[in-house]
Each structure stands twice: as structure tokens, then as C-alpha cells.
Amino acid sequence: MQSIHLHRNIAIYLYSMCMGTSKTEVFTAEQNQFANLAKAIGHPARVAIIGFILKQESCICKDIVDELPLSQPTISQHLRELKKVGLIKGSIEGNTVCYCLDKTGFQELVNFSSAVIQKLDTPNIECC
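Below the sequence we write its predicted C-alpha cells.
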């Protein structure tokens, strides 16, 4: 019985080692970048943060904890993720927090989406 469990555990480990990697190196830099952007905006808290920043008239240099139903550490983590992929820019470390949306990251999302729409608008494209 112990042997069966050992073999099963070894099989699970080997499977996780082979299948657990995302193999991002087989994709282009552009594909990886778009996937990272999409992943970053794939969380409703980040969408809410982007929406809040979008409503502001200038860079935000204040705490947004009062504006969203999230804790300070949670908001800080989401801001770091948005900054890491280039959707926001500024200083989000320490006591001084100033940030705004970064047009470059959003332009990449628009460019990819536009290319898809343009291809779908091609007359010879048929879909089920």
C-alpha cells in the first residue's frame, strides 16, 4: 500500500514539474506583454482602481482607501501590479503616494484589440 502512495506522489510531482510551468518563453514578447496586461486588468479591484484614477483630473497624491472598500495593503498590492505592467506610473512606495494612468500600457491594449477587430471586419472572414 505504501508503494502505491509513493508511486502516486512521484507521478503527481513529475506531472506538476512538467505541466506546472507556463512556458512563456515559447511565446513572443508581445504575446507575453499583452497577456500580462490582460491579467492585470482581470481583477475587479484593479478595474475599480483604474476607474477611480480615470475620474481624477490630475495625478493622485492621496490615499484611495476611503474611496474603495479595500484595505490599504490590498490597494497597495494592486497598485504595484498595475505599475509592474505599465498601466499606471508614479511613486507608490512609502508614505508619499502619487500615481496616474500610463497611456502606453493602455495603448498596447487598444492596439491588440484594434488588430483583432480589423481582422474580424475583413469580408472573407467567416465564423460559425
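Residues 40 and 82 are 6 Å apart (CA to CA).
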